[in-house]
Amino acid sequence: xxxxxxxxxxxGADLGPAEVAAGAAIAAAxxxxxxxxxxxxxxxxxxxxxxxxxxxxxxxxxPDPANAVRSTPDxxxxxxxxxxxxxxxxxxxxxxxxxxxxxxxxxxxxxxxxIHRPALALPMPVPGAPVLLLDVGANVEVRPEHLxxxxxxxxxxxxxxxxxxxxRVGLLSNGEEAGKGTPDVVAAHQRLSEAVGITFVGNxxxxxxxxxxxxxxxxxxxxxxxxxxxMEGVSNxxxxxxxxxxxxxxxxxxxxxxxxxxxxxxRDNIDPEVQGGAYMLGLRxxxxxxxxxxxxxxxxxxxxxxxxAVREDVVTRTLTALDAAGALRQSPSDTPTSVQAP
Amino acid sequence: xxxxxxxxxxxGADLGPAEVAAGAAIAAAxxxxxxxxxxxxxxxxxxxxxxxxxxxxxxxxxPDPANAVRSTPDxxxxxxxxxxxxxxxxxxxxxxxxxxxxxxxxxxxxxxxxIHRPALALPMPVPGAPVLLLDVGANVEVRPEHLxxxxxxxxxxxxxxxxxxxxRVGLLSNGEEAGKGTPDVVAAHQRLSEAVGITFVGNxxxxxxxxxxxxxxxxxxxxxxxxxxxMEGVSNxxxxxxxxxxxxxxxxxxxxxxxxxxxxxxRDNIDPEVQGGAYMLGLRxxxxxxxxxxxxxxxxxxxxxxxxAVREDVVTRTLTALDAAGALRQSPSDTPTSVQAP
Lengths: 342, 342
Fold this sequence. Notes:
2 copies of one chain form a homodimer.
Chain A: E1 5-9, H1 17-29, E2 33-38, H2 40-43, E3 50-54, H3 65-71, H4 76-85, E4 91-94, H5 98-109, E5 119-124, E6 131-134, H6 144-160, E7 168-172, H7 183-193, E8 199-204, E9 216-218, H8 221-246, H9 250-258, H10 260-269, E10 278-281, E11 286-289, H11 296-311, H12 314-324
Parallel strand pairs in A: 1-2, 1-4, 2-3, 4-11, 6-9, 7-8, 7-9
Antiparallel strand pairs in A: 5-6, 5-10, 10-11
């Protein structure tokens, strides 16, 4: 196998560029080439397989990411996206702002031909029932044809990267019946029921997201952002509440100690680092947005999944499936994507 | 204090009309008068304070609740709502379908003057940070002025029934900044920032819902339904996963045994029965929709909270606050509410 090259933005991570570089070093040791865009003097020495391109300018904290991308051509995320657009790298990984990564990807790597809107897809590590959610924040408003494309994009990703043979795709709604939801959701349900080359399991309610009834759940980016943050919030709150009630009695404290190892295994299991981040789907190349609070392990994982998506040719597979289903955009004059960070 | 009378629909509960009657009996023992609409022969004997009105016809499972309400004048929920409309009872409690209760309330008790849309409000028992969510399913689509009214309706309810002195009201969105969200959410944010007589704390993200940053969180009914079902789903899934990992080793099993009592206390604490159900706000009288799977304890609690809402005069307080803020509907020709069950 010829090596895959991943362009990585080292700016914006909570633990600093050196932590991203440490993740890049792990990925390089596993055979992936990394072009690392960030402040060379903070990054320091890197092993073979990692090439540092000095790019000290960061727009990871910019309040208007789309504007910052347009007005800052030497920002590290812009330079990384340009390297992918120019073919010097095969995929983009960002550890910074989601909005900046989306804008840089959209303006430089560009939408794949026939795609209405790129989407952010997030694999949720539900124990025993992993589920890919999209869109989790790229588009606050969508039309039915966007939701239909998200379904194909998610299915192709689940198949090639997550290894799900025949992904079941659901549509998030406020009831299982076909008529439930906003008019756009009802229209998307109708189209997906007739769609070819996809296993549509119908509407999925909020309770269904964690019940393993679908491998992919499709939604608009507003609801998707709320969904992932609710899941994170409820999960953290409940784990803290359990620790609190356990610490209130001697018996509880002993019980908590005995459960420490299994609970910590469960926590590792549902740790977002394991998934490597959120995936930008619908661009001409693969993009991954790692979470800013990741450690080197998470960044290494993000690079590894980007590499896998390239090797499995997710982009072509998605477009082939959409073409076969007649779901590619015909008119070139679609409304530009609103670039909104989750 | 003169006794409050609550009209209760006994049809539709999972455990049957007798269980609802048992809940009514508990409420009656505490001094509330109950008019119980349901099949007299299944209900059997009732104590003083409960009057059974034989109403064997149930529309709790009707696929189109609004239509069923219109075409079934002798349905128990319709008769119960009519009793409230006629002044024979002060509040409505239903243990059946939310959609049927909403339609029966809307068509018979009717919207309060100046209210655009009734909303369903649900107090979520987040440990240490209880929060009232609305709308959780009455209106899948809303306009900014509806969200503004929901804010006042929720604040008045939190103050009078939940006992929160100065409720902090937040707006669910995909980011904390004022510009985040759909155009309707952004417009609602703008209006709420300038609203008088309310403590608006700005946008609340999904993670914020469980963090105690607001006492009331306002949203459209589609997102609200997804939100409450996600919270329920994630919470149940995590509790099951903890039991599963604990049962996999002898140490874990002993730990689980020692934690049984605190975990069961936590579970009771977050049990939806404690809250009595969801509240229909914006009608001329108070309505409560208990969950179909409640036991007598939950139904008793629903009647008790309805009684409290009447005593605290939530309806008048809400309208007074809306009037002072200039947020009452002026035109009588607003689009009729879409009646959608959660």
